[in-house]
Amino acid sequence: MALRTWSYATRTLHLKPALHELSRRCRVRSLSSTSHLFTNSNSTQTTPQNPQVTIQGRTFARDDFTTVTPKIISRVGTNLHNQPNHPLCIIKEKIRDHFYRSFLNRRGNPLFSIYDHLSPVVTVQQNFDSVFVPKDHISRKKGDNYYINEEFMLRAHTSAHQHELVNAGLDAFLVVGDVYRRDEIDTSHYPVFHQMEGVKLFTHHELFAKCNNATNLSLFETGSTARTPDKQETHTMEAAKLLEFELKSIITSMAELLFGKDIQCRWIEAEFPFTHPSWELEIFFQGEWLEVLGCGIMEQKLLQSAGAGTSVGYAFGLGLERLAMILFDIPDIRLFWSTDNRFLAQFRDQDTNQVKFKPFSKYPPVIQDMSFWCPESDYESNDFYDLVRNVGGELVEQVAMIDEFTHPKTHRKSHCYRITYRSMERTLVREEVIQIHALIRETAERELRVEAR
Ligand code: DAH
Description:
There is one protein chain. The chain is an alpha+beta fold. 25% of the residues lie in helices and 23% in strands. It has helices at 17-25, 70-73, 87-102, 124-127, 162-167, 204-207, 237-259, 300-305, 320-328, 341-344, 381-392, 430-447; strands spanning 52-55, 58-61, 113-115, 121-123, 152-154, 172-180, 192-202, 264-272, 275-285, 288-298, 312-319, 366-373, 396-406, 413-421, 451-452. Strands 3-6-7-11-10-9-8 form a 7-stranded mixed sheet. It has a 4-stranded antiparallel sheet with strand order 13-14-12-15. The chain has a two-stranded antiparallel ribbon with strand order 1-2. 3,4-dihydroxyphenylalanine (DAH) is lined by residues 6, 12-13, 157, 159, 197, 272, 275, 294-296, 315-317. Its EC number is 6.1.1.20. It is found in: Mitochondrion matrix.
């Protein structure tokens, strides 16, 4: 499996991937997002060799970077987060209303605005450079992202919009949208999921409004001081600490609103390229500490480069699927893409604090293994995961690598994957699975140049 750069839960971007990978592996994996189990999309389409890629009417030239697949492109525009009564939309609205209520201007109107229709097609510059992800950072890997070509990609996080919105003059906003990352397939991982990003900027007056001695306080150091674990070099200690307090207060009250007043929260120090200091929020839920979001004090150089260098601010990002799965007890991330009434009706017009998802019966799985010799170069497990999804469609519940070894003499690498097939609508017939499995093998041999064993 590729070294994971994104946290297992919110799938947040970490600066220290290796460390984080270790801790991730030691914990039970949980969520992110989905597909839909209830349509019969046994798509047998695999990567076409069309020199162009079309996404929502825009055409892009394919190049060596291209990793988007037709299957993934077909998800663009679905916007589950905007579908009324969808659990992702319910959570979005709850959090949005919390921010609307918490920050009012003098006329009593909300200060925050929400952007939930921004296209997921962004430039690589927006996704990575605008938030200071180092050029050689492994989160940029082709194997982990859906690149459209060298210049464009499907956003891997909603932070891709921070810079452009601050640059447009906004100082209090939420961004909600679908994000895309190549990944393994299981009940808690899906290559499309949804995030909410929040940004709040403060002028001197706004930050120190509640302080008696505001005129003696400053946002910025006059000389340059060193960056410490507590603050950036340009910020004063009072600005950094007050921002931290404001950030943690609003996020804690959001967690209480979602999970109830008695929810236990803890802050874990974290590292993100676009915030310092940074934290993750964990909540104690049903006997486990679960990570639910990443946040921090925005890098001043980001604000400077976006034309807001006289303000300071905080930002946060959270995964909506994760929150929805915890809140509503939803066991399988693919359910979010369901159009089955048995799923959606459970959330319609309900008091959301009471709703718990009642699973409908699961049909039995059919499990098949596949082993092959990998080509000498240019092969990543994520290529295989995408291919399995393209060919097997919604019948694929999980693909897991179960064995890997290198032949002692030839040094060839062999991988063995276990594929779990399951329909949410009916019992699968073994023969039908064997056919799909054979098709996956043939397609992998042809397109990934693997050699079946
Ligand atoms: N964009 C991050 C991710 O997906 C999450 C995140 C962390 C967003 C910290 C933020 C933040 O705005 O301050 O990994």
